[in-house]
Design a protein that fits this description.
three-stranded antiparallel beta sheet; single chain; globular; alpha+beta; 16% strand; 79 residues
Length: 79
């Protein structure tokens, strides 16, 4: 599993068991990534890929977008 896949899986797992999105530090801990800047880099790439979004300047607003393979559409998953 790549670092980006571990980060995405960490976000999904955290959101499945909590009522909010994880912080960058929590994502790093869950995905075993020691540098917050590396987490930010991969979050930016995931955003470019259309797999996540967030509200700039606001904490814990990260949202996953799950691809609907049947229709080829992305749907938003709540944190």
């Amino acid at each position: 599993m790549t670092t980006r896949e571990r980060i995405y899986a960490a976000i999904a797992g955290y959101q499945a068991s909590h009522d909010c999105a994880p912080s960058v530090r929590e994502i790093g801990q869950l995905a075993e990534v020691s540098s917050p800047s590396v987490v930010h880099h991969h979050l930016s790439k995931l955003q470019q890929e259309g797999r996540v979004t967030w509200e700039p300047g606001k904490h814990r607003t990260l949202r996953l977008h799950i691809e609907d393979s049947e229709h080829g559409n992305n749907r938003e998953e709540k944190p």
